[in-house]
Each structure stands twice: as C-alpha cells, then as structure tokens.
C-alpha cells in the first residue's frame, strides 16, 4: 500500500510539472492597438454648450439643461426642433443648482440658439487593446469628463470611429499640444461604448478583427516591468500607427512615468499630445500599459497605467 501511495505521489508531481509550462503558454494575450479614434456619447438631454445672450437681455448659461419646450419633455435636439412653434416658445431651463426657470423666445430666436446647444459628448483618444477572444476593446486609460458639464456624462449610446490625423499642434512647456483629426461618422463604427469607467472606455469591437495586422501579445505582470527602454504605439499622421522609443523612469504601484526619447516623435509633436491617452506601451515584447497623462511643464514626460490595472476598469 505504501509503495502504491508513493508511486501515486510521484505520478501527480510529474503531471503537475508537465502542466505548468502549458498553463504559462496560455496566459492572457491582447492585441496592442494605437489607432486614433473619434468618440461619441449620446446623452439623454439637451444642454447649453456656450453662454448665449438673448435679445430680451436674458442669458442661457453654459451647462444649463433645457428640460421642456412648450410643456413637452426634451431629450434630444431633434425633439427640441419638433417642439418649436411659429409663435412664442416657452423653455424650461434646469440650472446648475438644480433649480428651474422659464424663458420665452420667438421661433427665430429658438432657431438661433441651436448652434449653441448639444445632446452629445465627443472627443479624440487612442485605442489601447482588443481582446481577440471576447472581442472587447479598451481605450483612453482614463474616464471621459464632459468639459461643459464638468463630470462624467450620463449616456444612452456610445460609438467609436477611426480618426485620421490631419495636423499636429506641437506641445511646449506650459502649452499642451493636440491632434487635429477628421472623423467620418458615416463610416461603419468600430464598436459601441458600454462603459465610461475611471480607467477608460470599454465596449464591444464590431469591425472585422481578422483585418488587424498586429498579433496578440502577453500582458506583462506589474512586477516584471523594468526601468529603461520601452516602446510607445500611436498615430501622429493619418491613421498609421507607428512605434516610438521611450524610457520608463519611475514605477510606483500600478502606475509608471516615462520620458519620450524618440527624436522623430519629439520633432513632430514636442512630446505628449492631447488625444494620445490610451496609446499602448510595450517592453520586451509584452504589453505593459497605456498612456494616461502628460506633465504640462515637461511635455516630453508622461504617465501611464499598467494594463493589469486598466483591465480592472476602476480601483478595487
């Protein structure tokens, strides 16, 4: 009996020894991206995007929400247009404080304010990864905050589209640069937006994943990340994703700091640009993380979140 038990233990040890390399080989892999994307979030309300002085001396203030037109509840600009009459129109406005007020304007005045109101949040960012198994993507590495509402917007539907970089406004100390992009929302969207979390936007990839030329690579564990040379993937011209050399200079918990050392990127952009958030970072052939922020006074220096942390979508 003891001999059989001894042989069984030896057998189990050998089985475990042979299984371990296979388990490592099947570690989670994601496709690093780097494409510039246009982001659209459709909101369930209409808000004022700029201060507007009306002919009667009253103001529509930036951030106010138009709740009703002539007693009809409004959830979109199309609904607002349909509710405007040829005579006087009464608008119920919700102020930042939560209180409401009413204003009366003519048909002409109502149509004149249309360029100053919105029912969506849009912007530019960078696609970080696609999971080839689940077809889920992640982008940005940080949450979308509406610049007028000053908070993450409540949204009913979201979409991402491919963006083409037409021009670069270079960064300089104290003056963040940005990408000037063209987004064709008439094209088939790349994916939906299911969540706008602290660590980025996430959703389902709807385009043909077989057309992506890059292959899935293994996620680097946080304790494997090293100071020194790494690689940044991003688009700075058209829709072409290029690889640039950076230097990881600090690692702290699930975040890291880096410096752009690539002469071509520095010459073209001056450093990190607005719209680069989400750009993948690789090291030694593994997926490290995504760009999240720049240092305004030192635009060649940036911050990033590790991919293992980004996948949590928000802190534990």
TrEMBL record:
Limits of the Peptidase S55 domain: 94-316
Protein's name according to its UniProt entry: Peptidase
Xref: PROSITE patterns: SPOIVB
Matching Pfam families: Peptidase_S55 (PF05580)
């Amino acid at each position: 009996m003891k001999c059989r038990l001894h042989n069984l233990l030896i057998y189990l040890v050998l089985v475990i020894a042979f299984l371990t390399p296979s388990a490592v080989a099947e570690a989670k892999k994601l496709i690093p991206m780097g494409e510039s994307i246009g982001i659209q979030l459709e909101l369930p309300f209409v808000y004022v995007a700029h201060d507007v002085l009306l002919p009667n001396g009253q103001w529509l203030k930036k951030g106010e929400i138009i709740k009703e037109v002539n007693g009809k509840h409004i959830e979109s600009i199309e609904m607002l247009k349909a509710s405007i009459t040829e005579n006087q129109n009464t608008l119920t406005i919700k102020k930042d404080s939560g209180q409401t007020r009413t204003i009366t304007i003519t048909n002409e005045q109502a149509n004149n304010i249309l360029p100053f109101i919105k029912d969506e949040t849009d912007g530019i960012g960078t696609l970080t990864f696609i999971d080839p198994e689940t077809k889920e993507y992640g982008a940005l590495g940080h949450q979308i905050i509406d610049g007028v509402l000053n908070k993450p917007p409540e949204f009913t539907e979201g979409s991402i589209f491919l963006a083409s970089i037409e021009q670069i406004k270079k960064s300089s100390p104290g003056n963040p640069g940005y990408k000037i992009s063209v987004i064709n929302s008439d094209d088939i969207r790349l994916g939906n937006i299911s969540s706008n979390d602290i660590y980025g936007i996430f959703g389902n990839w709807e385009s043909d994943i077989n057309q992506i030329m890059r292959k899935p690579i293994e996620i680097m564990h946080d304790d494997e990340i090293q100071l020194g040379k790494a690689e940044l993937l991003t688009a700075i011209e058209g829709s072409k994703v290029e690889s640039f050399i950076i230097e990881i200079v600090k690692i702290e918990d699930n975040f890291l700091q880096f410096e752009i050392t690539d002469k071509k990127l520095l010459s073209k952009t001056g450093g990190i640009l607005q719209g680069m958030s989400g750009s993948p970072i690789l090291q030694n052939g593994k997926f490290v993380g995504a760009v999240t922020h720049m240092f305004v006074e030192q635009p060649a220096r940036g911050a990033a979140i590790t991919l293992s942390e980004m996948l949590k979508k928000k802190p534990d």
